[in-house]
Amino acid sequence: MNYKNIVCGEFIDRPNRFIANVMIDSKPCVCHVKNTGRCKELLTKGCKVYLEKSENPGRKTPYDLIAVQKGERLINMDSQAPNKAASEWLILKKPFGEGWKVSAEKRYKKSRFDFMLEHESGKKMYLEVKGCTLEQNGVVMFPDAPTQRGLKHIEELIECVNDGYEAVLLILVQMENVKYFTPNYATHKEFGEAMKLASQKGVKLMCYDCLVAPDSLTVNTKIKIVL
Predict the structure, then answer these.
(1) Which terminus of the chain has a smaller tally of CB atoms within 10 A, N or C?
(2) ∠ CA 5-65-72 to the nearest 5 degrees?
């Protein structure tokens, strides 16, 4: 997926989860943060950030903060980007082989999964994407905060398998060159335990890193999952 009108800035602070103060061309500016998570390990005072300038001249916040430089790593932190990148990957790269039609935002019982894939043979697969931005010493983890919604998604992916469908949980790491992925047990133990159970029940767990540029995010290489 690609962005338009990218500019570089310097992070100052984040008054709330929706906005941040940044310096662009030595001028202070209030921007929208496209991630409502904590991201405290990413947004540190003085760090380099990348922003997309809105094409709507009437917006109160003319820029969206989409990526941050953390040491030598460029990390995309746009929470909407993983689904867009995953959609392109599913359609163009066909990771499950030929014959699958991809549909987004499909309801299943009380849940709405990110994707439903239907094979020409009649098989159906439900797929949920989780974007991952938390990294420590090359190890990436999810979630960065307790997520009852994420837990519910895993439980319902298990239901899909029980009902005879295929189900996939895709962790999309919004950076590259990482060692492996593991659930963040310290932050949300139940989510990690649910991932273990899902794997045992037949849910396919997948993790890929991404090629990240200031103006793009592309699904890249399969990453080892350690449960």
Answers:
(1) C
(2) 95
The rounded distance, in Å, linking the Cα atoms of 154 and 171 is 12
Q: What are the C-alpha distances in Å from 31 to residues 36, 54, 76, 202?
A: 13, 10, 16, 43
C-alpha dist (Å) from residue 33 to 38, 62, 212, 219: 11, 11, 18, 22
Helix (H) / strand (E) element for 31: namely strand 27-33
The strand pair at 63-70 and 48-53 is best described as: antiparallel
- Categorize the per-residue pLDDT at 34 as very low, low, confident or very high, splitting at 50, 70 and 90: very high
Report yes or no on whether pTM surpasses 0.90: yes
pLDDT tops 90 at residue 57? no
Q: How is residue 2 annotated by DSSP?
A: B
Give me 3's structure tokens. 């962005």
203 secondary structure, DSSP code: P
Beta bridge partners of 117: 102, 125
**In 3-state terms, what secondary structure has residue 161?**
helix
CA dist., res. 156 & res. 113, Å (int): 9
How far apart CA 58 and CA 19 sit, in angstroms, is 17
Task: Give the C-alpha distances (Å, rounded to integers) separating 174 from 110, 166, 197.
Answer: 28, 25, 25
Distance CA 154, CA 197 (A): 9
Cβ–Cβ under 8 Å, residues 78 and 35: yes
| Alpha carbons 218 and 134: distance in angstroms, whole number | 18
Residue with tokens 């009108």: 5
